[in-house]
Write a structure and sequence with these properties.
Distance between the termini: 21 Å
Helix content: 10-25%
Number of helices: 2
Number of strands: 13
Mean pLDDT: 78
Shape: globular
Low-confidence stretches: 114-137
Largest sheet: 6 strands, antiparallel, barrel
Strand order of the largest sheet: 1-2-3-6-5-4
């Protein structure tokens, strides 16, 4: 969901925990103009801020730089010009998350699943047990079954790793900028979380990355957590971006 003219938002300076309310006046391809209720001295030109939309059923954020201040009117430029990065989808994916200390944070990692069966020199998939090429089979169905099998192997591998959080499928709202999900672990705004997720792509991806908790809501003895990926490596955000665009295309095909 994109910003709209007249939408109520919050501005959060990068080096502050304080959020200031505002209203979107205009949205342009490279930026946005915002009106504040009063002049705020803490908000300065050239500062980096997060533009946040928050509703009971929706959360999103955009990173921007303040390029001009005139009384209560701010002009901001997007730091990520590829606006697709903020496209969010609702999905069900295997995910595990836990709170960690900043000292335990490591580099984000992406593991690409390898084909279960190799291709022959002619590009035809072969089953090792018989060595016979599968020209008579529907290749799309065969590849789908193999990828499902690969995902199951990855899940079993994760569950067998002692000392790690459980990876299990659950509903999420995800974009290249962040993810929202339910957890049993009590966390607070500003905590650092390690996120492990499996994305059903071809080949399947196993991602380990880190993010900052930006919102927590208690729901039925669980915690709905919104985590920002703003400091994650570009490769991680790009992989998630490709996945969300793929899911969007699949949804559009179903609606035709």
């Amino acid at each position: 969901m994109e910003l709209k003219d007249g939408e109520k938002i919050f501005l959060k300076p990068e080096d502050s925990d304080i959020r200031y309310s505002g209203e979107v006046l205009t949205v342009e391809p490279d930026g946005v103009t915002v009106k504040l209720p009063s002049v705020i001295r803490e908000i300065k030109k050239n500062a980096t801020v997060l533009i946040i939309t928050e509703r009971p059923d929706y959360y999103n954020e955009w990173q921007a730089t303040i390029t001009e201040i005139k009384d209560r009117i701010l002009k901001l430029k997007w730091q990520w010009l590829d606006r697709r990065e903020f496209f969010r989808i609702d999905d069900i994916i295997p995910i595990g998350a836990k709170k960690i200390s900043h000292e335990k944070k490591g580099p984000s990692r992406i593991t690409f699943g390898e084909p279960l069966y190799p291709l022959s020199d002619k590009g035809i998939m072969e089953i090792p047990e018989t060595g016979q090429s599968q020209q008579g089979l529907d290749s799309a169905i065969l590849r789908l079954l193999l990828e499902i099998n690969k995902k199951l192997d990855m899940l079993l591998e994760e569950r067998g790793n002692s000392g790690e959080e459980e990876i299990r499928p659950q509903p999420v709202n995800i974009s290249a900028g962040g993810i929202r999900f339910l957890t049993d672990e009590k966390v607070s705004k500003g905590d650092l979380m390690e996120i492990r997720m499996h994305l059903c792509t071809c080949p399947p991806l196993k991602i380990i990355t880190y993010g900052e908790v930006v919102r927590v809501t208690e729901k039925n003895n669980k915690y709905e957590v919104a985590v920002s990926f703003k400091n994650s490596e570009e490769e991680v955000r790009e992989a998630i971006l490709r996945y969300t665009l793929q899911k969007q295309r699949e949804l559009l095909k179903k609606q035709r």
